[in-house]
Amino acid sequence: DTVRRKARIATTHITREALADRLFALFTGYHCSRQLVTQVYEAAGFSLANMAEALPSWTEFDLHLLVACFLRARFPIVVALNKADTPEARTHVERARAKLGSACVAVSARSEWWLWDQQRQGHLTYDEGGGHDSIR
Question: Are 89 and 111 in contact (CB under 8 A)?
Fold first, then answer.
């Protein structure tokens, strides 16, 4: 109810810019730029061009959609799937990626340690934490 009250917009003689300022000001507590909120607003499927007409008729679903898209963009989550070098890891990684999508990254502490040890011995060079193309 508080968000609805804060977002309530007078329908008489308000410019699209003022409307955008008022809506986007709701997200300032998250230390994000207006540009990020604008991109999220458009990525959620809303149009800045008809904001003045569309916003007063928003449903609770529209508000939740905007907030969910904003949280996903502002606070991205990456799932590290450790022990990717074990024999059974392939099926687990595939299953996790099927459920969670591209937010999953397969990692292996054992492989990273092996690379570090080989670099220490002078057999190769690599950028710590880099991908396979960082090994020389």
Answer: no
